[in-house]
Amino acid sequence: MYTSKISGLGYYVPENIVTNDDLSKLMDTNDEWIQERTGIKERRHIKKGDGNSTSTMGVKAAKIALERSKLTKDDIELIIFATLSPDMYFPGGGVRVQEMMDMKTVPALDVRNQCSGFVYAISVADQFIKTGMYKNVLVIGSENHSGGLDMTTRGRGVSVIFGDGAGAAILTRSEEKGRGVLSTHLHSEGAHAKELSLEGPSTEHWVPEIISENPQENIPYYPYMNGQFVFKNAVVRFSEVINEGLQANNLSAADIDMLIPHQANLRISQFVQRQFKLSDDQVYNNIQKYGNTTAASIPIALTEAWEQGKIKEGDLVVLAAFGSGFTWGSAIIKW
Ligand SMILES: CC(C)(COP(=O)(O)OP(=O)(O)OC[C@H]1O[C@@H](n2cnc3c(N)ncnc32)[C@H](O)[C@@H]1OP(=O)(O)O)[C@@H](O)C(=O)NCCC(=O)NCCS
User: Fold this and answer.
1) Pairing label, strands 316-323, 327-334
2) Potential cystine with 150: which of 123, 222, 256, 271 (Cβ 3.0-4.6 Å)?
3) pLDDT of 261-306, one tens digit each?
4) 149 Cβ contact list (under 8 Å, min separation 6)
5) Fold match between 3-174 and 180-334?
6) Which atom of ligand 1 is closest in space to residue 292's alpha carbon?
7) Which of 189, 222, 265 to mutate to test the pocket of ligand 1 (most atoms within 8 A of CB)?
8) What is the number of other CB atoms lying within 10 angstroms of the CB of residue 270?
């Protein structure tokens, strides 16, 4: 029986820092409101002309991960690309990575599970490795939120939260028992699809329809979020799915060395931290610097934690995510 271990990690964020004060020049908001409710101080936004896109950022993160794994692009047998903000409506970002990295004609799979995208992608990669089909899989989470946010007061409930960036991991086959990805657990609840969504342009909301039928104040091609409803569901689902993962491996919260929660909101992470009685050293948060980068948030945080020496050989690392769909999931990893 094979397992998969993470053999390389990397991340990339655009250079352009956007502080809460910068946002208050565009919309009626302020640093105090944003920090108190979300913990966010600043985020990164792609600047027009800086050469960044969802796929180019993904490639930058992937190249770092690949170098650290000591593999070459020709060793990669599958690309999995998670994003809610692809460069194009179709095709997805995976094929662009294949081209930009000059890889062989390996399969490129796009995952559309928003904030849970990276955990879903890790789960898919893990299954392909466990069955023996592939040895090395490149997993990317990347988002260009700034290109699609309503940067006026009308959109302030959503726009202050999200940021741009990318993270990547290489999953590699291992035969070491009890190490690597021990389990993944995934869930969805489509009844709440509209509570955190971007409805158009889509086959339900074609552009001509949007323009003719929607007055300026009701534009479905900006993201919508029922913030309080999302918050209440997130804290419950995070806890449930972490417990599910721990129980499946006969582990308890006391066994966790590092929890990397999807960076939805610092208050959500702190709530989960209290639930599992974890110390500040056992939970990694960087939403203060980057905002919520959706599918990129876990790989960026995981990479930073690893770079800072906060994840060591043998540690029990828990990844957990919740987001639009609703979808949620966890991965339990023995490093
Ligand atoms: C979004 C969130 C921070 C909003 O906080 P909240 O306490 O629920 O705030 P509300 O939406 O009730 O809004 C409170 C007031 O602040 C206002 N407001 C909203 N955004 C604002 C902003 N950026 N700046 C200033 N005021 C703002 C609202 O208009 C509202 O004003 P009113 O009372 O006059 O109507 C919070 O609900 C949240 O974090 N939810 C989870 C979001 C999340 O994690 N999403 C990602 C999931 S993957």
Assistant:
1) antiparallel
2) 222
3) 999 999 999 999 999 999 999 999 999 999 999 999 999 999 999 9
4) 155, 158, 159, 162, 222, 223
5) yes
6) 46
7) 265
8) 15
Task: Indicate the domain borders of the chain.
Answer: 3-174, 180-334
Structural tokens at position 141: 């989470």
In tens, the pLDDT along 118-172 reads 999 999 999 999 999 999 999 999 999 999 999 999 999 999 999 999 999 999 9
DSSP state of 70: T
* pTM for the predicted model, two decimal places: 0.97
Q: To which CATH superfamily is domain 180-334 assigned? A: Thiolase/Chalcone synthase (3.40.47.10)
Determine which residue's CA is closest to atom 11 belonging to ligand 1.
Answer: 227
CA atoms within 13 A on the CB side of 284: 25
- 326 CB neighbour count, 10 Å cutoff: 23
Does 3-174 carry CATH code 3.40.47.10? yes
CA 327 – ligand 1 centroid, Å: 21
- Among 45, 52, 115, 136, which one carries the catalytic annotation? 115
State the pLDDT confidence band at 202, using cuts at 50, 70 and 90.
Answer: confident
